[in-house]
Amino acid sequence: xxxxxxxxxxxxxxxxxxxxxxxxxxxxxxxxxxxxxxxxxxxxxxxxxxxxxxxxxxxxxxxxxxxxxxxxxxxxxxxxxxxxxxxxxxxxxxxxxxxxxxxxxxxxxxxxxxxxxxxxxxxxxxxxxxxxxxxxxxxxxxxxxxxxxxxxxxxxxxxxxxxxxxxxxxxxxxxxxxxxxxxx
Length: 184
Fold this sequence. Notes:
The protein has strands at 4-6, 13-16, 26-34, 42-47, 52-55, 63-72, 80-85, 95-99, 106-111, 117-126, 133-138, 143-146, 154-163, 168-176. By secondary structure, the chain is mainly beta. The protein folds into 2 domains: 4-85, Immunoglobulins (Immunoglobulin-like); 95-177, Sandwich (Immunoglobulin-like). The chain has a 4-stranded antiparallel beta sheet, with no helix packed on it. It has a 4-stranded antiparallel beta sheet with strand order 11-10-13-14, with no helix packed on it. It has a 3-stranded antiparallel beta sheet with strand order 1-2-5, with no helix packed on it. It is rod-shaped, with a radius of gyration of 26 Å. Its main location: secreted. InterPro entries: ECM_Regulatory_Proteins (IPR050991), FN3_dom (IPR003961), FN3_sf (IPR036116), Ig-like_fold (IPR013783). It is found in: Secreted, Extracellular space. Pfam families: fn3. Residues 1-91, 92-180 form the Fibronectin type-III domain.
């Protein structure tokens, strides 16, 4: 029954606290700062009627020290403190580019490349159809060649980033192989 954080993301969290004040008896001063940079403290005033607040625009993978100071005109309440560490930023691939398209192959590249990604999976299969092949690509790489394809065919290519945290994010693009030479 004290100040605590829920709904933690890479850039926000929700603070919840017990009802100490009311609209009539005062307000809360909320102070929060990155533990590594206490000089960057931010202060917010919150109505005495509130018992929760979302803090946003925070830095990822950062520990924040938070103090809730009840400013009561009736009783003295000691400040409530807690600390919260935001999550690592998980950014999905924001672009998938297809290049060097030939009758039997094309090149797939993606961005951005992030340290938090362990590996990438490249899934590809002809449209329409449900035969899908998978390529595993090391997380340090941002491109791969897809080969042994049928000419003049549209493929759906999905790049999935597999984060060290176990999360996955995907982005898809379409690719067309070129017409083959006659007689192929």
